[in-house]
Amino acid sequence: MNTIAKEATSKEAAIELAKTHISEFKQIALDIIHENGYYYDVNIKIGNFSFPTKIYGDITLPSGYYDALRIEIGEAKGQNWWCVMFPPLCFVDVSSGIVPNESKEIMKQDLSDEEFTLVSNKEDATISFKFKLIEFFQNAKLMTAKN
Q: Roughly how many angstroms between the first and final C-alpha of the chain, as a whole number?
């Protein structure tokens, strides 16, 4: 996956690369399953799927729907591991979870400054919550409760 995704220069290119390698992905999955003494079926899909929040070192991707290649093994009810194909955020050593600088640079190019700040876990990044109704009352100089 890391090797294939490195060739992609856009999300669309990554999806096309994944489509052209589907049979290889399936064979690799089947080989590894068989090498470990199991005989599960493998189903591969490319689409828009729901994902949980995922933290990659200093990058946090929020939960939501993402375009992805999904490999379902057996009944697909077990623990799942996933990676981002573009920019490439797949790890050989999943325990380290460090995002390569090249991937961060691609993210900076493809995301607005605000979007990149939201996904990068920088200590100086702050989130401020605002309530439009309270702002309206304050701007209209109407009385609001004070703590």
A: 54
